[in-house]
Amino acid sequence: MQLGAHGFLSFAGKIFGLTWSGVDLFFVLSGFLIGGILLDQRESENYFKVFYTRRACRIVPLYYSVLLLFLLSFSLGPAFTGRIPQLYDKWIPPWCYFTFTQNFAMFARGDFGPSWLGVTWSLAIEEQFYLLLPFIIRFVPARKLSALLGSLFGLAIVLRIVVSAYHPESFVPTFVLMPCRADALMLGVLCAYAARRPGAIDYLARHSIHLYAILGILASATVWTATGSYQPGSVSMMIYGYSLLALLYASLLLIAISEKRGPVSMITRNPVLRWFGLIAYGAYLLHQPINGLCHSLLLPDTANTSKHQEQAVTALAFLLTVAIASLSWIYLEKKIIAFGHSFKYKLKVAATTELFRVPSRQASR
Q: 128 in a domain, yes or no?
């Protein structure tokens, strides 16, 4: 079946619309990286202290800075906030954000709150994940860990079905609650667990063609569903869509950590993309307020705004976001993260068990 120009643009638009699923990639990567750290250090004497100190140094300073900027700008009053209502409407009490419980407020209300802080639901999920995972890895016997992680992956799917049955009017509850999104997080941890098995990385490297085949199948399934109702609130998404995305990104991750040469490794080693990876946290937190402020200040008369003007302002907002996120990384985040890493893990024994020893190829990355 051939697509005309209009049909192709419509199809491409639906595929591009899946960029919202970048947060699912983030969850898989987070599960892999955080899970890997905890697996490597599960025997440490100061396991909890160092882990939570480092996580606080990574997450809290920039996040609280964005919260304070939001509150300061809100204090300017209606004369300012009234020009950008979407950034401030649907008020959620600030204490929810400071305690990383805003996703519960969003669940209760059925919306994401003010768009300035709308994306922070994912940080709430991450923090709640950080409260759970260290105890699982520390206290669950190694031989039972993979079975438990797999069970939690399946439980997330069941919980989404149950929650959506009780809240059919809104997709927000299944989107913002940590247990409903635990499939992507636990799948990332499973990847970290599997990668630490003796010979696992070499095995994956020898069977890269099979990984690419799986990646192709999952990508095709995603493209096929994207042409239909593959949106955050669709029934297919709530039942299996999030898990499909998690599997897609997990297969991509396994290729990236195992292949020496290939299209995926070439992309992931690109210096420009690696830089975007470093500033991604700042860009994620800042892109909504910067975009909203740029449009309200530069295009106050929306009735007479052309499409080209909107696109130009959006491009400017993107460049400003990259610039400010880069400055944030260089002058704030990088220094505080270095301080966090001055806290070192102290092992009870000379080395970790063989099960969780990092393969040499992965350790060099």
A: yes
Residue 222 lies in a domain: yes
Task: Identify the domain containing residue 306 by its residue range.
Answer: 17-363
Q: Over the stretch 2-59, which tens digit does the pLDDT of each residue have?
A: 455 455 455 555 555 566 778 899 999 999 999 999 999 999 999 999 999 999 999 9
Does residue 191 contact residue 31 with C-beta atoms inside 8 Å? Answer: yes
CA 337/CA 57 separation, integer angstroms = 6
Position 185: which residue type?
Answer: L
Beta-bridge partners for 347: 44
From the centroid of its chain, how far is CA 230? 19
195 domain residue, yes or no: yes
Helix 142-166 and helix 182-195: axis angle, to 10°? 160
| Assigned domain for 240 exists | yes
Q: Report the C-alpha gap between 226 and 224 in whole angstroms.
A: 5
Please answer whether residues 204 and 211 qualify as being in contact, where contact means their C-beta atoms are separated by less than 8 angstroms: yes
Domain count, the chain: 1
Spatial distance between the Cα atoms of 159 and 149, rounded to a whole number of angstroms: 15
Q: Which two tokens stand for residue 284?
A: 């994620």
